[in-house]
Amino acid sequence: MLSEQSLELIDLVAQLGSFTAAANHLNKVPSAVSYAIKQIEDEIDVVLFERHHRSVSLTPAGSYFVEEARQVLKAMAVLKQDTVKVANGWRPTLSIAFDSVVRADRMAYLIRDFYAHFSDVELVIRKENFNGVWESLISGRCDMALGATASIPVGGPFLTKSMGKLHWCFVVAVDHPLAAFDVPLADEALLPYPAVCLTDTSWQFVAREFSVLPQQRRIQVPDWVQAINLFRAGLGIGWLPRHLAQGFIKSGSLIEKTVVNPLPDSDCALVWNNRCQSPAMQWLLQYLGDEQQLRHYWIDEHSA
Fold first, then answer.
1. So which residues are the signal peptide here (predicted)?
2. pTM of this prediction?
3. Which domains does the chain have, with CATH numbers?
């Protein structure tokens, strides 16, 4: 049966062009190399080398065999290396789900630093909303989630780091009819206007709809960027995470309104599957840091 050593021997003879030169390289006698090559040729029933007086050359079949053998040897070397890496916790990919509440402009820096540190691991980035984050974790579509909110008691091997609280503010456009109200807005005042809300990306869990009143029409959008565009255009009203809204409020393009029934603050967390530990996961957890660093970098508007 052809072995790795057999392929390496044929490759060596092909490179040196002589049984004697190959034997000297291996500290063997020429007859041992010649005999080993003859056994391989007999096994596959193909002549690989033409024998000359003091040298050998590849036959056409031999040239094909050597080229393919070199690819096999490379693949075997990679297989050995990857097997050792897997035994030491290496995984070829790391999947991260980002909830829309985190700052999307920071994602490119994380990817840049990760790829500078790891040459053999790929990042898979997913964008999820609300319970879709948890579904992605539980189903195994992602190994880590950044910005998970309103945790569901799912059990299992999940660990968390707090990212602090998410604060919500109710906003309307500058020229919206509600902008002129100088008293806290009751639910009855809000009902005539469509509520802009994010689509929960969960397919199996019950969708979370915390920002819509009963009987109120909705405008569902995929992310907060689209929501802000609709708020500014006066096409709907609703809630925004304060860290995403405050820049528009300061610039005067959105107005924050007080409501009779405000939304409570939401817990926000980094969550990861502890069964998916790998050198890349450990590096990323250290890179993301503690609660203060997580919040400063991924939530706070003034992050640098």
1. none
2. 0.70
3. 4-87 (1.10.10.10), 93-165+266-298 (3.40.190.10), 168-257 (3.40.190.290)
